[in-house]
Design brief:
Largest sheet of chain A: 9 strands, mixed
Function (chain B): Catalyzes juvenile hormone hydrolysis.
Strand content of chain B: 5-15%
Structural class of chain B: alpha/beta
Radius of gyration of chain B: 23 Å
Pfam family, one (chain B): EHN
GO biological process, one term (chain B): epoxide metabolic process
CATH architecture of one domain in chain B: 3-Layer(aba) Sandwich
CATH superfamily of one domain in chain B: Alpha/Beta hydrolase fold, catalytic domain
Distance between the termini of chain B: 66 Å
CATH class of chain A: Alpha Beta
CATH architecture of chain A: 3-Layer(aba) Sandwich
Helix content of chain A: 40-55%
CATH topology of chain A: Rossmann fold
CATH class of one domain in chain B: Alpha Beta
Oligomer: heterodimer
CATH topology of one domain in chain B: Rossmann fold
Largest interface: A-B, 61 and 61 residues
Family (chain B): Belongs to the peptidase S33 family.
InterPro entries (chain B): AB_hydrolase_fold, Epox_hydrolase-like, Epoxide_hydro_N, Epoxide_hydrolase
Order of helices and strands of chain A: HEHHHEEHEHEHEHEHHHHHHHHHHEHEHH
Strand content of chain A: 5-15%
Radius of gyration of chain A: 24 Å
Strand order of the largest sheet of chain A: 1-2-3-5-4-6-7-8-9
Order of helices and strands of chain B: HEHHHEEHEHEHEHEHHHHHHHHHHEHEHH
Number of strands of chain B: 9
Chain lengths: 472, 463
Amino acid sequence: MKCLIIFGLIVAVFGAFVGYGYLVFTELTRPLPKPEISDNTYWGPGDGKDYVPDKRINEFRLSVPQAEIEDLRQQLNRTLRLTDPLDGISFEYGFNSHALEQFVDYWREKYLTKWDERQEFFNKFKQYTTEIQGLNIHFIREKASEEAAAKKHVYPLLLLHGWPGSVREFYDIIPMLTNDQNVTDYAFEVVAPSLVGYGWSDAASRPGFNAAEMATVMRNLMLRLGHKKFFIQGGDWGSIIGSNLATLYPENVIGYHSNMCVLNSPLAILKGIYGTYFSEKIIPSRFFYDHHFPVWDKYAELLQESGYFHIQATKPDTIGAALTTSPVGLAAYILEKFQTCTNPGVKQDFGAIVTVFGLEPVLDNLMVYYLTNSITTAVRFYAENVSKAYTNLQLDRVPTPVPMGCSRFRYDLPSVTDWQLRDKFPNLKHSMYFQQGSHFAALEMPAMLYQDFTAFVGKIGLHGADSCDYKA
Amino acid sequence: MTNLFVRFLVGGLAMLAAIGYKNYRELSAPGKRPELDNNAYWGPELSKQNYKENKAILPYDISVNPEVIADLKSQLSRPLKLQAPLEGVGFEYGFNANELQKVVKYWRDTYLTKWGEREKYLKKLDHYQTEIQGLKIHFIHAKPSKEAIKKGKKVLPLLLLHGWPGTVREFYDFIPLLTAGSDKSNYVFEVIAPSLPGYGWSQGSSKTGFGVAQVAVVLRNLMVRLGFDKFVVQGGDWGSLIGSNVASLFPENVLGYHSNMCANNSPMGSLKLMLSFVFRSWFVDEQNAHFYKGFGGIFSFLMEEMGYAHIQASKPDTIGNALIDNPIGLASYIGEKFSTWTNPAFKTLPDGGLTKRFTYDQLLDNIMIYYVTNSITTSMRLYSESMSKAQFALAVDSLPITAKTGCTRFAYELLHVPDGVLTNKFPNLVHSTHQQDGGHFPAFELPQQLYEDFTAFVQKAEL
């Protein structure tokens, strides 16, 4: 009898434990409703009491005074006293000093000498600025070509860059998107803005401008241009902003495509751990195992590579000031990301950046940060997105009905599996694994990204339906 | 039925107890002293073949080439394009740009104008350099005053170690107290304050693998070179960890160890630290409770304040290259620590409270040393080299310090660990105090207080 009572007690305690565990689990993993955020917050300087929105769309042309280029050349001509790398070391300790010297030489002697050419190149797409919520937003706006407009279904597309990228990343893919191509029935009117705090867009003057606010401004930008419904494509922050836009304003988004499909909800993390051990249940092929697993290895790699994230998320003004006052410093810091985001086979090679990206695109991109003095405001975005105000929104747990497409490039930051994605994107229409390529997909392999994006668009089932409602 | 069940239960518990006890024994057993090459060569590859250590100890001239000062002045004269701080923000986002502008102006218009004075001030202590294991090591050598010797004070050699982003400059008000002695103490000190290898005027390693244990070997060899077979060690920040390594690896040389940042990074220490979060009252008493953060406090501290350590431990060459030849960058990056680490509450202040405890001259002296010696990159490599698998494998953390040890804790220091957590590393802890003021740089900020505590330790330990 006593034995039965003791046994019963143990079962009861155990049961209570399990029950409690289950409650905690469901609380942590259940989907959440869309949070309410204002779509009209003023982000300009001061309190905006007397703010009268200026809705004009002004033309923008890059025209850097020669004196600025001269000054940069002089700064790049200072005698560098960089410390030699340790014996036998390439880029294992960060950006190699000898490589940096070579880049600086090229930048000064070759690149700046043909700056006028580069500037012409920058201006090859039509660019504008307009004021949204107190912030001047710069953007590229390229309409579909005449041939494309005649033969294809044309849709608006919001193209979002990240850090340390810029609109420059899209200069190869934009013509593919706007032109008449054989592989798809679609063409696009591309809107590629500089993110708030990046490039030629203003930055917020007070704390709180996080990825949800960014999504709102970008959505309002599209509305300003007459696009009530549009596609979104993005990587890095662009992917997260796009995800937020699709979540907060699903009525505006026809489809959302990402080349960095990350998801950090508790459920996704738990599923990731499960997937490490039972991957065959959740990935389409064992060849894709290395994209996601083992999660412990991925975390270790992330730890090694995320020092920049940590310092930018906590002391953006400290590191920002340091990079603002030294173009060589800015080069080392940003180039390191391009060096790392090549592939493991070449990322210790001095020639990797040249081979994978080419020197001009990378220096063009660096010039965007340098000329606009935007590195500080760019890195502040990290601090805003780890703040409680933002993380409390828990946007990763809010599902959206918007059709989603995901392309995974082999050497990018680890993505999540479809099994995880569907918790947030139940309307996942397209999922692709590439066994090559890395973080800067639009720059490195624009044709593949273009193919993948249009494949996604084709799967949504728009063909023939409601095409008259879309104003291109 | 009951019998069987009870037997299982008892048997299971006994097994758990046995496993737990075995692990505990393993965890708390003192580690084995690792094999370290006392003669490892750390210099450039080219010189290795015919390397013959130059044992001469020569006076060292820290004079700065006037061209460097002129170039610095012109760099500081460039139009400053810093982004304005966000509205209502002090130092919460890092070094406030408005304050940085003020510092730059002072640096250019006042400090550099009197650079001759500053250089003279830096030279008021005697500088030397000697070569240890392929590296030129700079140090200050301060002898005890004649009066103190006349009074019959016992002279103890003292190895005084700075950290990051500090330099020997932190000790300029501390050293005179150590060499003058006081009525409260029978001791006076002969101070050897080196620039850590890779910092200031000391050469950095050309080879990988130069972590705290290897630095400890070099600095112990420095003391032996100077004729000090037995000495006391004092340090904070990296100086505390390097000093702890010296004391652990060379018990035959170390008379006593004093630190203002005592730590126990052995597995047992980490375990006990976890325990101290759960069973706080076992480790921490009411009076000093505010010195010891709980789990939440330590976690948020790690997240909020360790970004620099994260990037330095993983990409020292990137961040080093960003700061070399970048005086304003250095002022921002290094200056931030003298604000937040002196008192975390300073983060809310628009000027970061920089001048509450330090003068601009003091702060700029320290930054100048990094700038003119070009040592920021090598200084940061200490992080990557010390936080490597190879370094952890040496398990010096598990080696107890047999010499007498003293720990003092300043109120606003980043992180403190209670005595109860230190026991397996400091079995001979004879002195443990709490200071109700002061932060991470006590030798710089409150030299008198640090001096009094240090000599109290030495007195008590009867070194």
